[in-house]
Structure formats: structure tokens, C-alpha cells
Amino acid sequence: MTYSHATSARPRILTGDTPTGQLHLGHWVGSVENRVKLQDKYECYFLLANMHAYTTRADKPDEIRASTIQIVKDWIACGIDPERSTIVLQTECPAIAELTWFLAMLLPFNRVMRNPTLKTEIEDKGLGENYPFGFPMYAVGQCADILAFRPELVPVGEDQVAHIEPCREVARRFNQLYCGVDPHTEDGDYLQAGGLFPIPKAEIGRVGRLPGVDGKKMSKSLNNAIYLTDTPKQIKKKVGQIFTGRQAMDEPGDTSNLLFDYVRAFIPDPDRVAELERKYAAGDDIGDGHVKVEVADAIDAIVAPMRERRADFEGDAGDEKVIELIKAGTRKANEVAEETLYEAKKAMRLDYGRRVLELG
Ligand code: TRP
Questions:
Q1: In this structure, is residue 179 part of a structural domain?
Q2: How far is the CA of 17 from the centre of ligand 1 (A)?
Q3: Which tens digits make up the pLDDT trace of 33-69?
Q4: Which amino acid residue places its CA nearest to atom 14 of ligand 1?
Q5: Cα 142 to ligand 1 centroid, rounded to whole Å
Q6: Greatest CA span in the chain, whole angstroms?
Q7: Assigned domain for 115 exists
Q8: N or C: which end of the chain has fewer CB within 10 A?
Q9: Does the residue 149 lie in any domain?
């Protein structure tokens, strides 16, 4: 048997963000820019992973709610079009939670804990041994987030690739165990071979990992992130903080520094980038200050249209609009995710009838 989605007109994408703050430039170059572009060719599902936010912030429900709404505004500001793409609220998409349970049976505990992204997070957030059971569970949940939508592609930043790998493993496992797919099947052939789940591929953005202005991982707590809501003044100030250690404009500079990571990430004209690199390396009368002004202007050119699109969603009325978009998207998403869960249960001999889910 082959499943219906395999023949749908446009291949699917699923990706998302955890609402633990607002989006910054790292999100933009790592993934969101890509998502905006892929909207035409793919049927896109963008997930608000609010359940995951509770894994480390269960004591901050108000913050999670505010951030959930903020992220939708960031998405729209970036050019994600809710008419074409579907916004999914994780906590109102119960098929994800149910699928998490089933997939958890197919992933060895040690495999889940071996995930380098989880390990880094435990370290960075100083969780030690005191994280809740639900924390590593989110890594299994992320497999379910993805597979509930049976996408081909998962556009993510580099740090998320370690989460996509177990998703691919568990998809193969499920297909082999419950759909009778031969374990020697090539990843691209699983659907044809009768599998329910495609083996989804990660797709990394133009810049997989953009460091903060201090060279460390971009994060809210380090105060080193440039946000998509920053004003031109804030952008200038933050770019100004980039430290190169170079003393004078006639001193040959090393273009593998952080400042030039920003040059390459944000100055759109490749000829200008090459020229700056050449002059900087030669110490040809070009100071850090000058390069920083160009970088800040280039960043502002990206962010300015975002400010305009965001203007329609200000204040409480904007929040209300966002909530309506979340509801409408999640209703649509549930149709897809419920279908997947139904097929998965059938494959698992849990075929006790079909349910109808209604979102108020
Ligand atoms: N873990 C991702 C992050 O923190 C968010 C996320 C949750 C996600 N589920 C996903 C990303 C599924 C891609 C696919 O950014």
C-alpha cells in the first residue's frame, strides 16, 4: 500500500521555533530566510513548539504565552505568509503528543541521551542533573512534530541537525516494523516501498551558525543578539561592540574574524564583500569602524521591511489577530496530523475507529 500524501501536489516542509524569547538575526540567516523562500514550492507548516518551552520554563507560563505571540509577529514580519503557510500550535495539536509516545517506544533511551544538542543545552543552561524528565522527552517530541506532517524537508539552523537524525532513524524503524519496509531500502524510497513516513532531510540556511556580537553563541541571556525588532540605533550599537583586536586602518587585518563573518552574512553584493576583504587584508586604509557602519546599514536594510510588516500587528488588537491566525492554522494542521496519527495507529494494529477533533 502507498499513502495518499505521497502524491500531493507540493512536497511538505515542517519546521518551527520554541517560544522562549524573540527571534534574532541568527534565526533569520539560519532558517527563517530559507522558510520564506520555500513557501512557493512547498506546502509549509511552521510550528510554535510551546510544549517544549515548558521543559525548562514550566514556572513561566506568562512569558511562554507572550513569546508564542511574539514569534508569530516575527514570522509575519519576516515574510511568512499565513495565507500560504500553516501556523501550528503544538499544544493544540494532540496527535503530536500521542505520536511522541509511540515513537518513544522505538528510540533507545541511550540514543536519546546521546544527542549532542541536548548535551550542549544541559551545559549551557546549567541544568546539571536537575532537569525534568520532560526535558530529554522533547527530543522525542521533536521527531513527532516532524513526522506528524510527513514532510520531505526540515529547514533548520545547524544546531538542530542533531535532532533531525533521530527523527530519520525512528521513521525508518517505524516503516520497517509496522509497514513491512525492507531495512535495505534507500532513504528516498521509503514511501514507494510502502512506508508511512518519508525520511525527512534537514536543510541548513545560508549561515548555519551566526555568533553573537561577542563571538559566543547568540542568546538572550548573554545580551549579544541582534533582534529582528531592534532599531537602527540599537543595531549600530551592537555591531559596534564586535571586537577584532586590530589597532589601525593601515594594519593588515585577518578576514576570518567575527566582523567579517558579519560582512559575509549581511552585505548582499558579493563584489563589495570581496573588495572589503581585499582592502582589509592589505591594510589598505580601511578601519573597523567603517566596515561596521556598512554592516549595520546592511542589517538595517534587512530589518526595515520587517518593521513595516510588523506595524499591522501592534498592541492588543495585533495579539488578537495573531491568535486568530494561530487557531485557523492549527485547525488545518490538525487535519493533516490526525490523518497521520490515524494511519500510524492502523499500521500498529490500533485500528479502533476514527475520531473527529474539533478546535473551538
Ligand atoms: N527545537 C527547535 C528550536 O529550539 C524548535 C523545534 C521544535 C523544531 N520542533 C521542531 C524545529 C521540529 C524543526 C522541526 O529551535
A1: yes
A2: 5
A3: 999 999 999 999 999 999 999 999 999 999 999 999 9
A4: 15
A5: 6
A6: 76
A7: yes
A8: C
A9: yes
